[in-house]
Amino acid sequence: MTPLQIGRRVFEGPGPFVMGVLNVTPDSFSDGGRYVDPGAAVDRALRMAEEGADLLDLGGESTRPGSPAVPAEEEIRRVVPVLERLAACGYALPVSIDTSKAEVAREALRAGAALVNDVRGLADPRLAEVVAAAGVPVVLMHMRGTPADMQSRAVYGDVVAEVADELGQALARAAAAGIPAERTILDPGIGFAKKAEHSLEILARLGELRALGRPLLVGPSRKSFIGHVTGAPVEERLPGTLAAVAAAVLAGAEMVRAHDVAEARQAARLAAAIRDAAGWRHPGYTATP
Ligand code: HH2
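A: This is the predicted complex of the input protein with 6-hydroxymethylpterin-diphosphate.
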């Protein structure tokens, strides 16, 4: 598979790569309110780089189930100062902007973001235009509806087949806007328009999504399906997160999105070592030594 350039860095091989989560929101479900001050956000970004993150995902709007939409100006006000400070200090990692809004993506890319992470899979053609014009890669995540109504739309016959089909539609939207498939990463959207049973089945059958021919990103970090299985509250879901990270990598994820970077990196690397010890290889990839 073609190597993927994100900012100055080329991502190639099976990974696994770790995308560190940085939410500069007052209300994200697990780190809300901790990094609203740009200085605190930059410190956290530097720490995640030290912990071995491969890239950073910066978000200015919570997308937890039932969350209210944030106006574009407010989202821009939250993320752009952080991007500007990171650029000014020569931050080493590529930064992804986690947004579904064209205006936010445009300003974030101008301020130094190198990837657009769209939880709505380019449902808005204006965002697709911004991505195409900037020539940056994009994460197409699967969800249905909006964070406000998505959980009522978690109705599936065969969840993996339907997610694959709808990710295929997202790829078609990207292509129609002039974004080549080679610049896309796919994500099944753990917890987005998914009940716990759906998130678990997607993790178990993730390998089937490899038929779409694009790198897979999976974001299980601290999510409610872990609480559903174990009863753990959000601040005690690290062990469950690491189990899900390992399962995702064993099933074929090239990238995992996590709040606890050092821990997720270790879990992902161990899962990859087990995967490679069995002689398993991703089709089209050269395994890392
Ligand atoms: N999950 C969240 C946000 N963005 N992007 C991708 N590609 N994949 C994910 O699984 C994903 C995502 C939700 O997690 P978090 O950012 O921690 O919470 P919140 O939406 O409350 O800010």
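Strands lie at 4-6, 9-11, 17-23, 55-59, 95-98, 115-118, 138-141, 184-187, 217-218, 255-258. The two ends are 18 Å apart (CA to CA).
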